[in-house]
Design goal:
Rossmann fold, three-stranded parallel sheet, 15% strand
């Protein structure tokens, strides 16, 4: 009888722990309403992927945002898209190639 109870409870406990971990790491700790209106943020590689999604979320929270990248066309498209999706006009793109010593010094 107790083995049956353990077999039934274990998956439920595991699912509960997995749900708690998901909430802890993806939303429960940092509220979606946290404002960044008085912040200036620089995102390197904000033209695609994780950098773009990070830039978009920061722009949605109201920060002044500078996105950097190597490709000017891709960067300008990304900044326009972020402005449109976030309703935050304080987003600019600056060309920067961190593999170039001249750009790093500049």
């Amino acid at each position: 009888m107790s083995l049956v109870i353990v077999i039934l409870i274990s998956p439920l406990l595991l699912l509960g722990l997995l749900w708690f971990w998901k909430e802890l790491t993806m939303g429960m700790v940092l509220s979606q309403t946290t404002t960044m209106a008085d912040k200036n943020v620089l995102i390197t590689g904000g033209t695609a992927g994780i950098g773009f999604e990070t830039a978009l979320e920061i722009a949605r929270r109201g920060a002044s945002l500078i996105i950097t990248g190597r490709n000017v066309t891709k960067g300008q498209e990304a900044s326009k898209k972020i402005i449109r999706m976030s309703d935050n006009p304080k987003v600019v793109f600056k060309q920067l190639d961190l593999t170039s010593q001249a750009d790093v010094i500049r």
